[in-house]
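> run fold Ig-like domain-containing protein
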Amino acid sequence: MHRRLMTALAAITISTLLVGGFPAPAYAATAAGRDSHDSAAMGAYFGVVNALNPVNYRKHPNWNYPDSDTFRNGDVLWLYCYFLGAPAGPNNNPLWYHANNGDDGGYGFVNDRYLNTPGTAANPQPQAEPCMPAGEGRIYPDNAVYTAVNAPSTVLFGNHPAKMWSAGHGFLTGDTMELYCYFFGASAGPYNNSLWYMAYDRNRGTHGWINDHNLNTPGTAANPQPQTYECWDSGI
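> ok
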């Protein structure tokens, strides 16, 4: 499932895994990021809390996109990998895990507020590897191509579909972007656009997450129109 995504990412070093000032777990030092259903992924088991009634997993690291599977208090989930995405819960926790329940087979994104993990919303402490770290990557030759806009000075790619977690590689208006896949994550830009793409910059040979407001794609923040695959769609 979605193997194309992971083969598109090159190996990275621990320096690339420094996200928004939070160091990645030590066991991620030589990892290249993980396919969220890869049995070799290094993660951890944690228990579900704060779910008095069944709670739906999310298809994206964003509360507004529920999936059909559910989890509840007492479940123990395997955390494959993490994203920093749209804030959720009473304390606006931005930490999300792609998780699996081995008992019932349910899986999807779970916000950290529903797990007995260490850390807080203000001080997230990821307990698995980054799902898709940004950095040097391969081209995405068969995907939609659009142009970067609204970037008169350098705008940094994201390490996650959230504007505040920059990866270090920048782009400018006029750069040609190959769009690989999309997620709905944290809101960004003057109209709070939540649509993000994993993109390859043909001009600079780098890739990362770019918000839709920085692309000349159709649609608006209120009416997003994804132009490529959903990142973890079963078709990838």
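The radius of gyration is 17 Å.
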